[in-house]
Amino acid sequence: MTEKLKVATTSLAGCFGCHMSLLDIDTRIMDLVQLVEFDRSPLTDIKTVGKCDIGIIEGGAANTENIEVLQMFRDNCKILVSLGACALNGGVPAMRNQFDLNACLDESFVNGAGVVNPGVPDDPELPSLLDKVQPLHEVVKIDYYIPGCPPSAEVIYDFLTRILEGKPVDIPYAQIRYD
Amino acid sequence: MSFILDGKNIPFKEGDTIMDAALNADTYIPHLCHDPEFVPHGSCRVCLVSCNGRYVSACTQPAVDGSEVESNTEAVNSIRRELVAMLFAEGVHICPACEKSGSCKLQAVAYYVGLLTPRYEHFNPPGRLDASHPDMIIDFNRCILCELCVRASRDMDGKRVFSISGRGSEASLVINSESGKLGDSLFDVSDRAADICPVGALLPKHKGYEVPIGQRRYDITAIDGAAAREPVKKSGKSDD
Amino acid sequence: MHSATNMPRFDTEHVIPFVDSLVLSANKRADRLLQLLVEIQTQYSFVPDQAILRLAEQLAIPSSEIRGIIEFYSFLHLVEQGDFQIHFSDSVIDRMSGSKVLIQQLCDRLGVSPGEPRADGRVTVSTVSCIGMADQAPAALVNGYPLTKLDSKRIKAMAQLIESSTPVDEWPADFFLVSNNIRRRDLLLAAPFQEGSALSHLFKTGTDGILDKLSRSGLRGRGGAGFKTAAKWQMCRDIDADERYVICNADEGEPGSFKDRFLLETCADDVIEGITLCGLITGANKGIIYLRVEYRYLKQHLEERLARRRDKALLGEGILDQDGADFDIEIRLGAGAYICGEESALIESLEGKRGIPRNRPPYPVTSGYMGKPSVVNNVATFFVAAWVATKGGNWFASKGTAESIGTKLFSISGDCRYPGIYEFPFGLTISKVLDECGASETQAVQVTGPAGNLVLSDSLERKLCYEDLPAGGSFMIFNKSRDLLGIVKTFSDFFAHESCGFCTPCRVGTSLISDLVTRVHSGHATQQELDQIQIIAEVMNTSSRCGLGRTASRPIMQALQQAPELFTHRGETG
């Protein structure tokens, strides 16, 4: 391979668990960095996305900033990968979808147990919450899906090696997990 | 009398459905609403097979001598995959937060047919929970309308605690009691209906995560019984 | 049927005795539940909780199941409706005739929101699926009575009548005029039917003689599936059973179809004689007409016909004084559910349950109503059968094509000068039909309702017959000014609304398709959505439990195949 593939990663409405799982590939990350160069990612602390070959996103879209980042990834990445339960179907953050958003805010910041200084945060710096937490594929086109909460290091590693080697991606039966 | 299921000879007796015969021959056809103890229902459609080139539900279709049945083929599984995806998109199925995960048939069948994610827009129904009963809890948004609890309560427990109300996408499970709450019904934790739910809609209270995630029924053995699941190392989680 | 002012405002004390009297008249039979609910709904404008609990107690049915039935049918309600209940017909033809504007006008005049009773309980304005008046659209029902050819002037008058609490039977009679609109007569409509003629022939030639005639006539079920009528009747006759039933499917829910309404109104005797004939041939003693609640206004007329025929020994015990020729007919009402046009769902509904189609086999002809062999045929099938028994199979077979013998009644509506009933021989081209009904600038025709076929203007030489375009009766015409995708959207919404919800692909698939088509229609869809529609359609076609799910994706799929340019123009790129 003459040129390294550029990879960007980010966590939207997620818990960084998928990124932790990515790091769980342990020493194999050394093999990986031979083949890829990380662009925007929590691993590099680069804040903007350049033109990339692969974008990997954990977490669903819960607020306007998530949407902006997601669209930026889509615009700049040739391949966009939905990584983990939250990216795939909203996951735990999407449990709030069963309730009215204002009722959730009320419960969290106004009338809930143990609330001090009640009041819904309204700093203009804060991104607005979306009415519903959305899986990524409801917002942009997604090319690959990797389920799991988090997906195991094995699945992530196998996936990345296959993509890098230009092989068809196939997550084996035994490795498909949603939890 | 016999038929061929995916190249395998399956004997059957008069009155057997394709599903009956397959189950008797220890051959797995995916299903969610079927249970041999109860009258066949035919609502989930996951047991769809191609019988002599015609798509039928195995649980309701009488077996025909000499017929060719295809089940575990990509053509059939690709339809099943969408059916399961539809159920996921329609309800609220957040596996990481569900006590049934790992022993849930919806999840296990989804694994079997290789569903990575439902790519449909989620319906996001409003939350509906009934925790009125001392021993059991119902999360209606996990119900897949298989009516196994309806049938168990009616046909085995003789109670008719559950029924289905409404039409189309408004169809939902309802409880027979004056308040409509499970706690006010005749339902008891020892009922057959109490442990029939294939998903996490009807769950027992007072116990949680007795078996850790990753070590549960379908984590160990796949739903078709044959293929062993590869135990996945979950080093990202400290609790298992 | 009650007019507005003599409908008692709901009072608790009245409910229990009323329910008790109904239960008593139904001999406490649980299978009569739906009929009782319709009566209660008519009396109070809803089914009060006290009534539900009383019924549950008296009939030993869980109250949750009774509520489940009420929530299944569009015309039954758990909350009190207005004294005046206005149900606007919401078919594509009504919409093309301006119904949406009229609904808004009436709501504005009355100060009411659609679907919600006005605060003073005076009126509810809502929409229902096609009420079978597409030849005189836009139409609506007021407390069950059809109002036809609505316009702004009439809406204004209606609002005044409602505000002044004028009872419905004092409204101007011309508001309720339902025209027959017979536009073309052929074999069947040429002359009036001689009452009793089919039955006399039966006693002359015997059951085999009539079955032979039916067989020669090539008559196929007029409901849509096209099963040979003679074969069905014979199967039912030849099965060993102690009881049998004949069921007349008068649940004409196919949008744009109104031939059954016409037959029940104008040719009731022919139809009833056909049902009686079937009863005597199969050995059934009982016939049931399952009349859709939208046609409730015809019930009294039909009851009178039945009574007259009993007086003339054409119905009841000893028909035409023949020993053992006993057969009677009862009318039962539906409660607003398109799926009940499917024969096994209809039977479930007759047994007082939610109209969920049954698993098949067994078919109704071996195990139908109450588990007994039952013939279920469409109104038009019985109508033709009576004529064939009288005139002979060859007479009927003198028209039509090889596979599609005889003539057929068509309900023609939409963009044409003369909407109405047309009797055509099978095999006519669409363009011939369009000429006859005065259609011009035709963009498309929908044959046999939303579940049928879309025919665009480049295919007008296609023929109406089983060999080419199976024709159920509904024939809707759209001219070049119409928004074809909007029509597809109306059809998709219709299926989502009418899916019974039992099986996964239909319950979820119709909703998904309806949403996706809405997105396509508004211009927000990408290729991904179009691909998804095709996948869902394939899943619904192959895995749905009954015909509704298996045909529900046809409007969008046929539009995609036949008019791809509609989609490329609307879709966003990328």
Question: What is the CATH domain class of the largest domain in chain C?
Answer: Alpha Beta
Report the total helices of chain C. 22
Q: Uncertain segments of chain A of ≥5 residues (pLDDT<50)?
A: none
The percent range for strand residues of chain C is 5-15%
Beta fraction of the residues of chain A? Answer: 15-25%
Largest pleated sheet of chain C: 6 strands, mixed
Give me the secondary-structure category of chain A. Answer: alpha/beta
Shape of chain A: elongated
What's the CATH topology name of chain A?
Rossmann fold
Task: State the low-pLDDT regions of chain C, or none.
Answer: 1-6
What is the domain tally of chain A? Answer: 1
Count of helices of chain A? 6
Strand order in the sheet with the most strands of chain A: 2-1-3-5-7
| CATH domain class of chain A | Alpha Beta
Question: Which architecture of chain A would the CATH scheme give at its second level?
Answer: 3-Layer(aba) Sandwich
Give the name of the CATH superfamily of chain A: NADH:ubiquinone oxidoreductase-like, 20kDa subunit
Helical/strand content category of chain C: alpha/beta
Q: If you average the pLDDT of chain C, what whole number results? A: 94
InterPro entries (chain A): Hydrogenase_assoc-protein (IPR051349), NADH_UbQ_OxRdtase-like_20kDa (IPR006137), NiFe_Hase_small_N_sf (IPR037024)
Organism (chain A): Solemya elarraichensis gill symbiont
Protein name (chain A): NADP oxidoreductase
Pfam family, one (chain A): Oxidored_q6
In summary, what is this structure?
The complex is a heterotrimer of chains A (179), B (240) and C (574). Chain B is α+β, with helices and mostly antiparallel strands and 240 residues long.
Please provide a written account of the structure.
The complex is a heterotrimer of chains A (179), B (240) and C (574). Chain A has 179 residues and is α/β, with parallel strands linked by helices. Chain A has a single domain, classed as NADH:ubiquinone oxidoreductase-like, 20kDa subunit (Rossmann fold, 3-Layer(aba) Sandwich). Helix content of chain A is 30%, strand content 20%. In chain A, the strands form two sheets. Chain A has a five-stranded parallel β-sheet with strand order 2-1-3-5-7, sandwiched between helices. Chain A has a two-stranded antiparallel ribbon with strand order 4-6. The relative contact order of chain A is 0.19. The model of chain A has no long low-confidence stretch (mean pLDDT 93). With 240 residues, chain B is of the alpha+beta class. In chain B, the strands form three sheets. In chain B, strands 2-1-5-3-4 form a five-stranded mixed β-sheet, sandwiched between helices. In chain B, strands 6-7-10 form a three-stranded antiparallel β-sheet, with no helix packed on it. Chain B is globular. The radius of gyration of chain C is 23 Å and the shape is globular. In chain C, a hairpin with a 2-residue loop joins strand 3 and strand 4. By secondary structure, chain C is of the alpha/beta class. Chain C has a six-stranded mixed β-sheet with strand order 5-11-10-14-12-13. A four-stranded mixed β-sheet of chain C has the order 2-1-3-4, with helices on one face. Chain C contains 22 helices and 14 strands. Classes of the chains: A alpha/beta (179), B alpha+beta (240), C alpha/beta (574). The interface between B and C is large, with 40 and 40 residues.
